[in-house]
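Thread: "does anyone have the structure for this chain?"

Original post by V.I.:
We have the sequence but no experimental structure in hand. Need at least a predicted one for the grant figures.
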Amino acid sequence: MKFLVLFILIIAFNLEAKEYKSIHGFSIQVPNNYIVISNFNSADVVEGLRQEGYDSPFLKELNTDLPFEYFVKKNDLNIDNPDEININSEYQNYIDIEAHPLDEYCYSMQMIMSNAAGRNLEQYVCEKSDLPGKMIGKSFYYVMDSLYSDEEKSLQYQFFATREQLVTVTLNCSPVSCNNSEKVLRSLLKSMR
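Reply from O.Q.:
Generated one for you, tokens below.
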């Protein structure tokens, strides 16, 4: 019975999602009501959105010169700070996350992010995780005050997709909508292939 329920949930999710080939070398299932903006398609996507009447500060300030991919719920593109998931990767020599001291990582991330923000950012969660579906070993996962706004939270996963590729997946969200956006984030991570 549990298998049947799980199977139905997977099929239901896949019916409402489209496969997207990431610039970072993996495929993920993106919900149909989300739009993907990357440094390869940003000019066309943003122009198309403006022609549809979307003209939020988020679209104006979006930095697409970096090798990031942004996933945003299309209906939220008119608000100033929509919840957004972004993916970035960099080439780095492999570190065994499972063997790496967690307290050292947590402290370092809090200091790095606080320095970048110019203020002390509170860290709420910092642990190792088995998400996403495609990775080598475990991932680091943390929840912290957002670098960009006092009114947002950041949830982040860092993991090695290959022995030379460190991937960072971040959700920036408002406290009101974080729970729903985190469900989308987890679905994206579970779907990575």
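V.I.: this helps a lot. The chain has a mean pLDDT of 86.
O.Q.: and The beta strands are 17-21, 27-31, 34-38, 69-73, 84-91, 123-129, 136-145, 153-162, 165-173.
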